[in-house]
Amino acid sequence: MHVKLAADGGVPPVAELSFETNPYLKPIKDTHLLNLRPILEVADKHEFGVLAANCIRPEITRGVLRAAFDLNSPVIIQVAESQLSYAINGWFSGSKFDLLNSFSEFVAKEVERLWEEKGYLVPVALHLDHLQSDEELAFAALRAGFTSVELDFSKHPPEVDRGEAVKLNIERCVKLIPELHKHGVTVEVEEGEIGEAAVRAAQSEEAIRKEFTKPEHAVELIEGTNADAIAVFVGSAHGWYLRRPVIGYDALRRIDVAIRERGYFAPLVLHGGTGLSYEAVHKAIGAGARKFNYATALADIFLRTLERDPSGKGAELIQKMTETEKQESEAKGRKPRGARYVLGKFAEEINKLGHSVLQAAEDAVYEHVRDIITNAYGSKDKAPLYGSQFGRCPLE
Ligand code: 13P
Fold it and tell me: For residue 167, which of 289, 291, 7 has the smallest C-alpha distance?
């Protein structure tokens, strides 16, 4: 599989990621994090999935990384644009760049600490998920040492038809990708808005299928952008599924085949990992999906563990958070979304719950991630496939 120049020669393929091409990378001893390309190339060659975990608390990040190290598995750590302003803003402070930069430093330090502790390194990428509004954030992520960015310009007004939407999507992407690619930062694009599972639950199966990404649109987006991965809509959606999702495995396969037939390497990304069964993930891997986004379940495991704090203080706090969010949502005329959406605002109070409950929350995330890496994605023990610098020595 080779990378072609975009049809008009406009967008260059991603450069090799190194300290020479990218002075913004956070050093981890003498090396740095990977971008999506090697992470997904190996996953593609050996047909497994890679967890892309949205990490909106230090305990979630630590739990995910510790599980990846202990299971000798690659992993993608990510945070979405929207999460900066409801979660990361309470963890760190300052401008959006400061938030990204502090997050990136935290991840690099944690990876280095685990490397020291375990005696080996695993492949890790750092990705900005769902950049939808503030285009400058792509460059802020680059300068903060992120190794990958999702440019999600899939949303379009109802009067714009899908073919036109792809063209508008390309127009926005090509303004940003050359600078990212020059510095070895990979780009995920998105065709077909993923949307919320709760909203999708009100749609008929037929209406959902009609919105599936078409192979020709996915190919056109890749051709026009030279992107390195593509998120597509085939029925998965964000948040807990209120009814069993209709996942278009055949649609997924057709998109994958169409992209490969045109000579591009741009693996498929499946958003909306929360609530998908192991079987659904296995079938999606079989149809070509390689990166699996996972967010809601991790945040909920964190919150539910606080709620079980034996002192009762955790439950009280979650109740207060839920109530605050409800009032905020009602004031804005929208449905309440839950305590997760005020995580940043209550960060200090959460931290005051103390070490043992926070450690329990990290451990709960760790156990869950161990489970999905092993049973859903199949990336356990795949780290050594990334080269001799990665993975646990088999003789140990
Ligand atoms: P879930 O919250 O449903 O796991 O979806 C995550 C996601 O797709 C983030 O981009």
Answer: 7
Beta-bridged to residue 54, according to DSSP, are 78
Closest to 14 in 3D by CA, of 147, 139, 190: 147
Cα torsion angle, 385, 387, 393, 394, sign? positive
Mean pLDDT for the chain overall: 96
CA 323 – CA 334 distance, rounded (Å): 14
Q: What residues are in contact with ligand 1 under a 6 Å CB criterion?
A: 54, 129-130, 238-239, 271-274, 293-297
pLDDT at position 395, please? 46
Sign of CA dihedral 370, 373, 374, 375: positive
Ordered by start, the domain boundaries in the chain are 36-384
The closest-lying atom of ligand 1 relative to the alpha carbon of residue 54 is 9
Ligand 1: which of 36, 50, 54 to mutate, judged by most atoms within 8 Å of the beta carbon?
54
Share of the chain above pLDDT 70, in %: 97
174 CB burial (10 A radius; 0-12, 13-18, 19+): middle
Class of domain 36-384: alpha beta
Q: Is residue 10 very low, low, confident or very high in pLDDT (cuts 50, 70, 90)? A: confident
φ and ψ of 126, to 5 deg: -125, 115
Phi, psi of 350 (to 5 degrees): -65, -45
Question: What average pLDDT score do residues 185-201 get?
Answer: 95
The alpha carbons of the chain give a radius of gyration, in whole angstroms, of 20
The pLDDT of residue 1 is 45
- Index of the ligand 1 atom closest to the CA of residue 299: 2
CA distance 252 to 232: 8
9: CB partners within 8 A, 6+ apart: none
